[in-house]
Structures are given as structure tokens and as C-alpha cells.
Amino acid sequence: MKYILSAKAIKLINKTPGVKAKLSLALKGLSENSINRLLRENSINSDLTKLSSLEVLRAELKMEIDQIVKEVKSNVIAKEARLAYSTNSKTTVF
């Protein structure tokens, strides 16, 4: 199965203090810059959809896993989630 983060989860990750630091620890010291890149790209089955990340997100965001991730049926870029990131971070997505 193929999963990406939901747009709602990305928005909450960017708004909730400390979540990126906890994700960094769960992902064995991945830098916050790398976490930001993963959020921006929202690639299918990225490190952010791994169980260790989902456990952190469930606890910190107070969301169920089925609200955090979204199943995708094709390799189409997740525009919805990428736009959620770009709207919050004031960057342009092409």
C-alpha cells in the first residue's frame, strides 16, 4: 500500500511546537531541515509514514493514524498535501 501524509496532518505538524524535534529523534537524528524537506515533498511511503513517525504524530497531534495518513492509489504527486505545506510556509510550489 502507498501512503502520504494528509494535508491536515502537515498543517498541524507545522503549527505544533516541538513535533519536528520529536520526529527527528524518532527518525534517528534526521535534521529538522530534512523533516521540512520530507513535509514539502510528501513522497509516497516516506520516513514520515513509518510506524515510528506515526506514533509520534498520533501522540503529539491527538489524531488517529487514518487521519494522519492518506492512501494513494497511483504515483500522482500529492498536490493537496504539498499545497497545504506551501500555504503554511509561504513558499511557492510549482
Content of β-strand: 5-15%
Helical/strand content category: mainly alpha
Q: What Rg, in angstroms, do the CA atoms define?
A: 12 Å
Average of per-residue pLDDT values: 86
Widest beta sheet: strand line-up: 1-2
What spatial form do the alpha-carbon principal axes imply?
Answer: globular
In the residues, how many domains can be counted?
1
Report on the structure:
The protein is mostly helical and 94 residues long. It is built from six helices and two strands, in the order βαααααβα. It has one domain (2-89). The chain has a two-stranded antiparallel ribbon.
Structure in a nutshell:
This protein has helices at residues 7-15, 19-26, 32-41, 51-61, 65-68, 79-89; strands at residues 2-5, 69-72.
Task: List its salient traits.
single chain; 94 residues; mainly alpha; 6 helices; globular
